[in-house]
Specification:
Helices cover 32% and strands 19% of the residues. It has helices spanning 3-11, 24-29, 44-47, 61-69, 91-94, 102-105, 119-128, 149-155; strands at 54-55, 76-79, 85-89, 107-108, 112-114, 133-137, 143-148, 161-162, 165-166. The strands form 3 sheets. It has a 4-stranded mixed beta sheet. A 3-stranded mixed beta sheet has the order 5-6-7.
Length: 167
């Protein structure tokens, strides 16, 4: 929408008007709400669990471990102040010395997917690589949640897979 159109809508009394310059594709990739026929297609962003345990790079392993134990998760996503994914603390890292910081033992650059990625293709890759979960981020790398393969399997109709992907 153009800035002029946004101003016009505001003049009609609309209060939540946005001049979203990046475009429709970026909007969907950020996991923002959509309308129309495509909005009912299951996507990773809509299925992602939002309650993932997170910590900051400068937090101690003891603090991260406490946060993980209080959650349903077995790992901790390391994010910066803007919620950008920096790394991952798995069980071996969480078993490190209490006073070490997350950034000293985290796995740097964990794999992520965008909120609007094609779910059948993603599920194929997750099954082929035996990946149980995948971090979902927006186009700027900010954490939106974690897609559990089992959750996606429940909403995605069964597909027959060949070696090239969904048939």
């Amino acid at each position: 929408m153009s800035p002029r159109a946004a101003w016009r809508l505001e003049s009609f009394g609309f209060t939540d008007v946005y001049d979203y310059v990046a475009g429709k594709s970026d909007w969907r990739a950020a996991g923002l709400p959509t309308e129309g026929p495509a909005s009912t297609t299951p996507r990773p962003g809509a299925l992602a669990r939002r309650d993932v345990a997170t910590c900051r790079p400068n937090e101690t392993i003891a603090a991260a471990r406490t946060r993980v134990r209080a959650s349903q998760w077995d790992r901790c996503v390391v994010v910066n102040d803007a919620q950008v994914v920096m790394g991952m603390l798995d069980q071996p890292a969480l078993g490190s010395d209490d006073e070490l910081t997350a950034e000293t033992v985290m796995r740097v650059g964990p794999a992520t997917v965008r909120a609007d990625e094609d779910l059948p293709g993603l599920l194929h890759r997750m099954h082929a690589r035996r990946v149980a979960s995948m971090l979902v981020t927006d186009p700027e790398g900010r954490l939106l949640g974690v897609l559990m393969r089992d959750d996606a399997d429940r909403v995605q109709p069964a597909h027959s897979w060949d070696e090239d992907g969904p048939a």
